[in-house]
Each structure stands twice: as C-alpha cells, then as structure tokens.
Write a structure and sequence with these properties.
heterodimer; A: alpha/beta; Rossmann fold; 9 helices; B: alpha+beta; nine-stranded mixed beta sheet; 12 helices; about 60% helix; binds adenosine-5'-triphosphate; binds magnesium ion
Amino acid sequence: MTESINSNSPDASADTEVRPPALCLDEVNKQYRTAEGHVQALDEVSLTLENGEFVALHGPSGCGKSTLLLMAGGLLSPDSGTLTIAGGHPYALGAEARAAFRALHVGFVFQQFHLIPYLDVLDNVLVGELAGTGGDHRERARELLDAFQLGHRLHHVPSKLSIGEQQRVALARAFLRSPALILADEPTGNLDTENAAIILEHLGRFAASGDGAVLMVTHDDRARAAASRSVEMRDGQLV
Amino acid sequence: MNLARLVLREIRHRKINFALSLLGAALAVAAVLATIGALRSHDLQTEAIISDMEAATQSEMKKLEDEIRKSMKGLGFNIYIFPAGQEMSEVYADGYASKTMPESYVSKLADSKIVTVNHLLPSLTQKLEWPEQKRTIILIGVRGEVPIAHRDPKAPLIDPVVPGHLVLGYELHRSLGLKKGDPVTFMGKEFTVGDAYEARGSKDDITIWMNLGECQELLGKVGLINAIQALECNCATLDRLGEIRAELMQILPDTQIIETQSTALARAEARNQAAATARQQIESKKAQRAQLKAERQKLAGVLLPAATLVSMIWIGLLTFINVRERLPEIGILRAIGVKGRTILGAFLVRAIIAGLVGGAMGAAVAKFVSPTILPKEWLIAICLAPLLAALGAWLPSLAAAQRDPADVLRHD
Ligand SMILES: Nc1ncnc2c1ncn2[C@@H]1O[C@H](COP(=O)(O)OP(=O)(O)OP(=O)(O)O)[C@@H](O)[C@H]1O
Ligand SMILES: [Mg+2]
C-alpha cells in the first residue's frame, strides 16, 4: 500500500507517514427510531480505509450497509462514536460547511446512477460546481470522459446513453475533484458483466493511484473479487 | 456549470410544467390589468356621456334663452310698477296710468340689490290726439332697458327709439302711407319714421313710440314716467307677487305693482323646467354610472385578489409537482455538496422566470384587450408577477431545500 501512496512530489513524500486515512470510523452507533420500535442499524462499528484501499462491503439485506455508506459520506450523523474523512470531522461542521466538505472530499456512485436527466454528459460531470467551492473543472471533466470512452458523447443527455455509459458518467462525476473517498452503493447492480467489469476496473484504478480509497457495497462476488479487501456486515456489526 | 444554466436546461426539459406556470402568471396579470383597464374605460365613457349631455343641455338652454329674449321684445313684460296713488280702474280702462312718478325711480331700482325682478323698462304713456292727423293715438316714450347694476350687464331687450325718430304701429303707417325713413310731423315737431311695425292686432297698432326724453318734453312732463315694466326673476317662488312686492316696497315705497301674464314668463318657466329636468337627468345619469362603477369596483375588489391568489396557488402547486419529480435529483445534488439554499434558489428562480415571462405575456394580451392601461400599471404588474410567483413557489421550494438527502438516497 505504501508503494501506491508514493508520489513524485517530495513534499507529499515527506507527508506519507502522517497522511490520515481516507475514512476512519471508531465505535460508531446509529439507531433508527420509528413508531414500531428502534432499529440498531450500526452497532459499534469500527473501520479504517487507508488511502489506496478498495474495500467491498457485503452482507444480508437490511444489515446496515447503506446506513454505513451514507454516514461515511457525511450525510447521516452517528448517534455516538467518531468518524473522520481524510482526517476531517464532517459532523463537527454546520450544514453548509459540511456540504462544502462533501463536495471536496467525497464522491458518490449509486446503483441508479442518479444523473440529472436534462443536463448533457459534460454538465452532469460538472454539476458539483454548483456546490460553490470554486474552480474550473472543464478540462478535468473532458479528460475523465475521454478516459471513460465518452469523449464523443459530451453533449448527449443521459437518456441517449446506454446503461453502462450512464454509470461511467456517474463515475466521472464522482472522480471529478479527486476526492479522498469514493462511496459506491451497488454500482454494478444494474450492469451487465462487461460494463460491470469496466466500472470495477476504474474504481480499482482510482484506489490504486493511492490518492484516496473506495468503499463499495455489493452483493456481487465478482465485484468483491475486484476489491483489495472485503468486509462483511451482519445486524449492524462488522464480522 | 452555474445555477442559471441548470434552471434553463430544466425548463427546456419539463416544458409542460413550465408552460402551465407561464399560463397561470399570464392569466392573472391579464385579468388584473384588463379589469383595471375596464374600470378606466368606464370612467372615460362616463365623462363622455355626461359632457355630451351637458353640451346638449347648454345648447337647448341657449335656444330657449334666445326665444325668451325674442318674446320679451315682442310681447313685453309681466310686472308693471305704477305710482302709489294711481287708481287701477283707470289703468284698466285707459291702458295706462294718469299719475306719474320720477324717472329717477328706475335708477334707484337698478342700483338696488333687487333680485326678484329683471329687465327694467321705464315708460311714459298717454292717449292723445295726433293734432296734425286728427286721430287718437297712444304715445309711449321709452328709453330702453336700464341694466341692473349688481348683475352682469345684459343686452338691452328693447331697442331705444333714437331721438328724432318715431316708431309707428301698423294702423298708423298703413292709413297714412308712411314707411321707414319718411318725414313726419308730430305735435309740431319734425320726426323721421324709424320703424313701421307689422300688424299685431292690439292697441300697439295705433301706438307711436318715441324717445322718452322727447316724449317728456312734448307732454310737459320732464323727468317723469308713469310706469316701469319689468320681468319677474326666474328665482321667484309660488307667492312671487308677494315676494316681489315685499322687496320692491323696501326700495320704492311710493309705488304699487301689478302682474300680467306674459308669454315671456311662460317661456322662462318652461326654460327653468327644462333646465331642471336636464340637470336632473344628468344627475341621475351620473348616479347610475357611479352605481355601475361601484358594482364593477366591488367585482374587481373580489376578482383582483382572487386572480392573484389562484395564480399563486397554481404556481405553488406546479412547483410542488416539480419538486416531487425532482426528488432524486435534489438528493444527489445535496449529496455532492450543493447547499440547501442553492436548491431553494433553483426553484425560486424558475418561478420568477415563469412570473416574469408569463406576466409580460399577460400584459401584452391586456394591452391588446384594453388599450387604456397606463405604462405605470404595466410596469407594476410585470414587476409584481415574478414576486408573487416566487411567493407562491416559496413553500414547496423550501421543502425541497430542506429534504434530507440521506432519506432520498437510501430508498434507492
Ligand atoms: N429511515 C429509516 N427509519 C427506520 N429504519 C430504517 C431507516 N433506514 C433504514 N432503516 C432500517 O435500518 C436497517 C439498515 O438499513 P440499510 O438500508 O442500511 O440496510 P442495507 O444493508 O443497505 O439493506 P439493503 O441490502 O437491502 O440495501 C434496516 O433494518 C432498515 O429497515
Ligand atoms: Mg442498501
């Protein structure tokens, strides 16, 4: 892992030892309170993803995988325990600052892609600019889309793309700002083998670059095989 | 990537929802402006109707006034003022008073503040034999109307007879073969025939009119008259004679008055009646128009807020539908760091565009329907429409901005 963190920048090299993990959960609890009773969705969960790691999370339905992912993404605050992303504490921030934190450090990929139907491919990748954290990412977006074989589809709306192409657009959107953490909930759930392989390959490459980590929820054995580590969850606990 | 781009792309994508929002704003603005325009047209129409009626009345009144003047000229006055001691039986028998009073009485009357009579005409009348012709005539000395000082000077009603001239009644000039311009001798004095009247079928036909001063001299009654004729004022009430008498006695205690019926009076009364009727008609028309306006205003008072409210609710509803359709989009945008207020802004900007464009469309339609709308009203409507649209869209937009992205994304 240390090799992959290696950078050509001497400063970054010097930082290697002290660089914080992409994600760190320490004894995190989350309970959903409903009229029917309480659901312990996360039960004393501790998990660390170092930069360069590609971790697959699996377990039966309802065991708390999505809950963990949302929490790791700064969208769901824990009841207790601590959580850091790239060394930062998102839940110590106010709503607006946390949104900006997400924009800079986290990328999301979903089973349903969640592309904006009326924006073309390029705008979909750039939509994170609406977070207002600054910067012009058009060049980076084009590079990513070229790398994902979508360079010729920049101005097509999602409905004109194949399923696989749509998920690659979603992947480009997640990668745009080279976040510390990519969170993927069943990213291959809707894809055929071939497209699933492409997505897994890109996720693997992202992790392998060593600039961040990938946490992927999956039911798919092939997806699990593509990951560098596999974690199983049951009843809100990691096993 | 910016907010405007996102909003415009979305509008292009969900055309129907946006078009319905436009329609809502357009209809409301058109309804409001058209109503305002209709109220203004009503006022303009009222003004036109009333001024037409007033013009018609005025020209009618002028015609009647002219007729009164004419009839006064020809048919005389209806109030006679005689010296106090005059036997009226004598007046009825001879047609004139034998007693005289100073001519200065007329000036006194004219200089007074008298209001119940009008058009003072002093005269000196006497029945006598025309010595040169050996025939009985009635001689009347007149000096024309004496204007009443406190009223506007009016055109004299009866032309004074120019000194050195006589005006002859029909029987006289016919039997003597005289016509206008002929010389004639009367009581040893040379005169010219100033005018020769048509037959009137009355004692006027044997009357000679002469300048008052010359008449007084010929009759040896310098500075004296035996009657002042006058016309009752229009303002007189039912007991007009009593009223006139009371006023007159204050000014000329040494006189008495009688009233005769005259066509001039009848016409004056008819004119007054006509004027009153016309005034009444104008008033009732005004009242009718005012009532109609009040009704229309009341309707507008309900219609304007209703149209505004309905369109706001309409836009709110369409925004709500739009928000529901876009929940996944809101979830993902929030997840990748877009702030809640940016989401709020996206929906509000969309409503504002609908209000602005729809409002402008509505204003254009209103301009077409009712051209009386002022530019100021236009401007206000076009400015207010986006504001109200934003207000209508506020609640669903706020709800959208406050959606928890975790809730949206979990049910993936
Ligand atoms: N908002 C909520 N209110 C109440 N209970 C919830 C809520 N969200 C999730 N849960 C419950 O918490 C538990 C964990 O849910 P979660 O969605 O994390 O499971 P999961 O592992 O992602 O399941 P799946 O594989 O079916 O997606 C489940 O029992 C679920 O019913
Ligand atoms: Mg799940």
